[in-house]
Amino acid sequence: MIPSDTAQGLAHRPWAVFFVCPDRRGSEGSIGRGRPALRIALVIDDADRDRPNGVKIMSALLRSLEPLVTTLRAEGCTVVGPRERDGAIVLDAIDSAAQLPSGWGVQTGPGVYRLRRRADRAVFGHSAGPQAWKRFLHPPRERLWSADRGVDGTLTITGPDEEPPRYAFLGVRACDLRAIAIQDRVLGASPSYAARRRAAFLVAVNCTEPSATCFCVSAGAGPDVEAVETRPDRAPADWALADLALTELAEPGDAEPLYVATALSPAGGRILARLPQTPAPPDVVAAARAAVGAATDHMGRSLPDVDLREMLAASLDSPHWADVAARCLTCANCTMVCPTCFCTSVTDTTDLSGDHAERWQTWASCFEVDFSYLHGGSVRTSARSRYRQWLTHKLGTWRDQFGESGCVGCGRCIAWCPAGIDITAEVRALTSQGAER
Amino acid sequence: MSGSVAAVAKPSVVRPSLAVWKFASCDGCQLTLLDCEDELLALAETVHIAYFLEATSTVVDGPYDVSLVEGSITTEEDRERIVRVREQSRILVTVGACATAGGIQALRNLADIEEFRPRAPRIWTEERARNERATREDRASGARGPCERTRAQEFLRVVYARPEYVSALGTSTPISAHVRVDYELRGCPIDRRQLLDLLSALLAGRRPAIPAYSVCEECKLRGTTCVLVARGAPCLGPVTQAGCGAICPVYDRGCFGCFGPMPGANTAALEPVLLARGMTDVDIERVYRTFNAATSTFDTAAGRSHEPPQ
Ligand code: SF4
Ligand code: SF4
Ligand code: SF4
Ligand code: SF4
């Protein structure tokens, strides 16, 4: 966390962040009066840190994201956010808010993703793109160690980079926030993941405009950031999830959008306190809440309302697996774009001299033939068994393994599947076949 | 983390010998080896380049520890020569689409007129007419075609002014159709990092990294936005074996399939995807009938595009 919060500081949850009058800290009477002299104080180690009654986490109104980017960069963070590039909204380093994809929206469908111009200048007016934040927290390729043999034969072993990059993620949607929480549970014990994760500052953004492939509501992962942030079953429990939450309010035309900002962690509070702001008028806060609420009713897709773990466990011999296998390319795109898929394989390299060796960890997928290679051959050779592994792991056995679902409903696997295979449609088909039998 | 451990002496071994062989090919894969400019000196220090006519006319007799074989078998002489190369090589590695799949020259394998006729792409119509004429003439002169000889001659007539000077088999076949192959490097041409990794692996006695998954996975590892999904461009990546580093999509175009089919490639599932992205049946046949035309997977995919829909 920034700046240098300790695990001990993070252990005190939930935090309350108050807007207070200079004289009456934390008192209800001071809240929401719109006094220009408001400042933010943090109440962490106070007796009333348990969100005392009636005192709500308060929101500020930001007119630009530039000071936020500048402040985070001044804190030594590499700010990563959405950018328009190569016909998509990708995640990449930014050094100015001007690089955010102002006025770009997307249209998605099974196997289709297209940029479109929006009527407003929203920078977060697009849904999940081809990349997820795991690209930064759980990178596609990571050197685990390298070894060098000197002229005298001495071997020197060098571990991974000691200084993890300090990222600030700008624009983490609820589904992706939930995905980070899911990967925290899976990868939290890995020192390199933990180091990157703990150093990261997360600016979450509420969704007000889901796309045709979104189904976070039925996956229990959105679109409201705070609902995801406060889920009681997160692990490791002492890790902060998001630090700030934003809701973007954009009007058609050339006007710059407004942002309702809420601090969700002490670090978030400290950063927010340094930004030029005005208190968010109650009607603006209400409008922001309403927009997020409305998004709940506009999901493009949904998962069937059954116990998926049970349904899938009973469907292992369903004829539907052969049906989807005929359409599946076993190309692994779904697992690569999925923000929760975590599998890796390990490869050794050496140079020609034989004096330098490296061990690399690389993303892998259960769609690879070699993924299930045991002595004598692969266990899952058919497309049927590989598709079944992916789907049953995501929605069924993930619960046995980690106590929660492995799907957050971001819809990436639907949009970025070249064959347009739709996980919700396949689950629906399996569910209705199961019901018939 | 960084630390030193007890001194481990570098094993002193005799430099292994390397031979590079050329069969029917364009030399592009051998050039990839010469293209490893930064590593060539290190390579020359660690291995003894015993036979590599593209680089040196000095020839050292076998046996060789490692033979890199470029090119396909297209003549009677080469059919015998590859057996001798195998006998003299401890490890034999085929490099490139010609050696691993027969190469683009394996299109000649398709010049069986009876099979060729119903699905000939438009661009070949003229050649087909000429081939048919030639076959009629062959038959009139008593030949009982189509046999290997007449098939080759049909193409020879199209290409060469004096086809009688050319002596070739009717087919172009991969090295593995003739002798045992230890490792295969795919591609037209091969990827230099894969080549260096393979040579380093053989030197170190470790397993070379030759992935059996799709080009799509390499796109995702490097963070390239999918051109098929985001641009509607046809792409063979989902059925093609990785190894190239997914270069083509980086340059905003679909994969040509030059690394050939990955294990279990589902070309039947890709067909509707390609048709929906603007390819015609003829385009699909042509895109599969390139560097790896003679692989059964791509051959079937090319043929399937002309079957009436079920
Ligand atoms: S399974 Fe699909 S929808 Fe669910 S989290 Fe993964 S990519 Fe998103
Ligand atoms: S779905 Fe496959 S790739 Fe993803 S986490 Fe599960 S086993 Fe790994
Ligand atoms: S479901 Fe789609 S993305 Fe996943 S392996 Fe199959 S074809 Fe590829
Ligand atoms: S561009 Fe081609 S190779 Fe890359 S992910 Fe898309 S379909 Fe696969």
Write up what this structure looks like:
- The complex is a heterodimer of chains A (437) and B (310).
- Chain A is an alpha+beta fold and 437 residues long.
- Chain A has 2 domains: 283 residues, no CATH class; 107 residues, no CATH class.
- In chain A, 29% of the residues lie in helices and 22% in strands.
- In chain A, the strands form 5 sheets. Chain A has an 8-stranded mixed beta sheet.
- In chain A, helix 10 crosses helix 12.
- By secondary structure, chain B is an alpha/beta fold.
- About 6% of the residues of chain B have low confidence.
- In chain B, strands 3-2-4-5-6 form a 5-stranded parallel beta sheet.
- Chain B folds into 3 domains: 125 residues, NADH:ubiquinone oxidoreductase-like, 20kDa subunit (Rossmann fold), CATH 3.40.50.700; 50 residues, no CATH class; 90 residues, no CATH class.
- Classes of the chains: A alpha+beta (437), B alpha/beta (310).
- Chains A and B meet through strand 7, strand 8, strand 9, helix 11 and strand 15 of A and strand 1, helix 2, helix 8, helix 9 and helix 10 of B.
- Strand 9 of chain A pairs antiparallel with strand 1 of chain B, so a sheet runs across the interface.
- One iron/sulfur cluster binds next to helix 11 of chain A.
Write a brief caption for the model.
By secondary structure, chain A is α+β, with helices and mostly antiparallel strands. In chain A, 29% of the residues lie in helices and 22% in strands.
